[in-house]
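ZP: hey, is the zinc ion complex queued? I don't see it on the tracker
AM: it wasn't, my bad. submitting now with these inputs:
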Amino acid sequence: MNTVASRLADIPAVRDVVLAAATTARAKVRGEVTELGNAMAHAWIITGPPGSGRSVAAVAFAAALQCSDPVELGCGRCRNCLDVLADAHTDVLHIVPKGLSISIDEMREMRKEAAKLPTVAGWRIIIIEDADRLTGPAADAILKVVEEPPAHTVIMMCAPSIDPDDFSPTLRSRCRHLYVPYPSVEHIVDLLVAETGATPEDARLAAVASGRHIGRARHLVTDPAAQKRRATILNLAELIFHRDEAFKASTAFLKSVDKQVKDLSDEQDAAELEKLERSLGKGGRGKGTQKAMDGSAGAISDLEKTQKTRRNRRKRDFLDLALVDLACLYRDALMLSVGADVQLTHPDFEGLSSDLAERVSESGLVACLDAVTQAREHISVNVTPTTAIDGMIGRIRLACGVS
Ligand SMILES: [Zn+2]
């Protein structure tokens, strides 16, 4: 089953909004109504925690809008549906930011795209992922097009939340809001078992330990290196009590993150460079070749800059996720300490969290959580990872009464 309705089956609230909107949109395209009414809007902000599937929802929404099946909206079989779902539809521009921020230039370009008429389907659709990365000027640059989009254009922006820290309040006020909640643990278990062949037990642990983040759960259940990294960061909570071992472990951990980023980036970077060089005429023998190459240094250095930013971003994202894992372990310990009856995030590390609950006071555990939060903040403002993590270890040692 690949219909839009089946893709969104686990989040009925989202499915219903999307299908109602697409139904109205279709009536408008067919000239059956003149106004879009309440169900459909030209500008949407789709929010939800990372991994909840907000971009999946945006793409499914786009498919429902472009679908050409006369009966089933978002049929999943027609050319339009297939192309949108494969991220290859001519009338759907899907912007996935590569760097830490979305620049005003990118948004000026988007504005031009938004003004074009659709060519093969009913709508011109712009999806902007991670719209929380819009810089102030970039958000201002699209304010007008979001406020009064061309009649055939739909703009969907995805962000973690509509908190003013995450999304421009001015833009927010001009958009219809659609919230995508986390999927249930059961849904993730079913998905991972079907998709990866994992055992239900492993799938359940991955779903819980990832905080119901589908992408991370999938990664955790299929990638032994990810399992190892998770164990390393969680064991740090134990090594804190053993002299300098925590510092040694953190150094090893940072190295493994560097390797992960390298593995993920090297091939992609090389392929991008090759493509750029080809488009610049490198390797050709024609008269114009040397001339083209003379002017290409700037383009290559731009690409290298983008790639470097992407590596940094990846590294920080991996570190942040690892620190969230560690924070959840201290939270588990705190829950055990106060006797709260809640699902632990790391049930397979219950031995360690109950040990922490016994050894460290409640206020000490809160201070450990604060130390992790502070390290996350430091990393987000470009403090070097080694400095941030070493500082965190020092503070956790203090909080745990280790001198
Ligand atoms: Zn279709």
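AM: back. The first helix runs from residue 4 to 7.
ZP: great, adding it to the tracker
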